[in-house]
Specification:
mainly alpha; Multidrug-efflux Transporter Regulator, Chain: A, Domain 2; 3-stranded antiparallel beta sheet; 3 strands; elongated
């Protein structure tokens, strides 16, 4: 099991060339949620750093203000949750299709039913690109 790395506010500030007050502001605005020690020291995980990098990209490169960053982060989280639900639904459909294919009734059908695999659109596009090359 990989040990989780944690970073203090000073280390993170130096790593990303930002003032510690900026990190505190991001926390006050709800954009970052570092864990805390018993002594109340902020500890940033690798996941926190990935989120910080995204925040800095939005603010530095795209000029998005903090209210916009908040909206974008919330939308990103909602999209990730929806993607998880789609993946779960996809797995259920695959399982159900495999059950249907294995039934004796299907095997005795007068008209043969070709085996089809349900594929994600992205996978289908990638497969097409690979075969075209």
């Amino acid at each position: 099991m990989k040990k989780k790395r944690l970073y203090t506010i000073g280390v993170v500030a130096r790593m990303y060339d930002i003032h510690p007050q900026t990190l505190r502001l991001y926390e006050r605005e709800g954009l970052l949620k570092p864990s805390r020690t018993e002594g109340n020291t902020r500890l940033y995980s690798d996941e926190d750093l990935q989120r910080l990098e995204f925040i800095l990209f939005l603010t530095r490169e795209l000029g998005v203000n903090l209210a916009g960053v908040d909206i974008i982060l919330n939308m990103k989280e909602q999209m990730e949750e929806l993607q998880k639900q789609i993946d779960q639904l996809f797995e259920i459909i695959q399982k159900e299709l495999s059950k249907v294919r294995s039934t004796e009734e299907l095997k005795k059908a007068i008209v043969g039913v070709p085996r089809r695999k349900v594929m994600r659109l992205e996978d289908l596009i990638l497969q097409k690109k690979l075969t075209d090359e």
